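Supplementary Text 2. Reproducibility record for the structural model of the 160-residue chain.

All settings were left at their defaults, and a single model was retained for analysis rather than an ensemble. We include the record here because the model underlies the residue-level annotations in Supplementary Table 4.
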Amino acid sequence: MTEKLIKWIDRLSDIFAYLSAFLLIIIIILIVSNITLMSLTGKSIMITDEYSAYMFAGFVMFGLAYTLKNNGHIRINVLTSRMPPKVLKLFRYFADVVALALTVYIFYYSAYMVYQAYVYQMRSDTVAQTLLWIPQLVMPIGFFVLALQLVAEILKESVR
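Retained model, structure tokens:
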């Protein structure tokens, strides 16, 4: 059961990594299109800056869990490189539990922020007048998937 759950979470992180890459491709297409249009006609796609920023936030948030899964987050190992294996295992377990608690905390408040933006129908102060809850939704989704990946990492640590 534990192995199936770990594999499912790892696959979910992979799916969100592909979504993250897709958003980066869309950002590139949007910016190149805007540059081309500006060069040829002197006119701009008015939403380029705003939507590129929204998609960049999605790119980052959707890539967090995959980065954790592949040990891509920056780690300072001055202390951990000198720890005996049993102490290191305990330290990693403790660090993952603390990270999970912080991630769940941030997930809750980012979901609350999205809820408030939805209830009050908050909009961007730009030409597009984007409903802010839509781009803000990437935050709780990203933190939720990161929390799941942290659970998988804790389970992996307990199996080892």
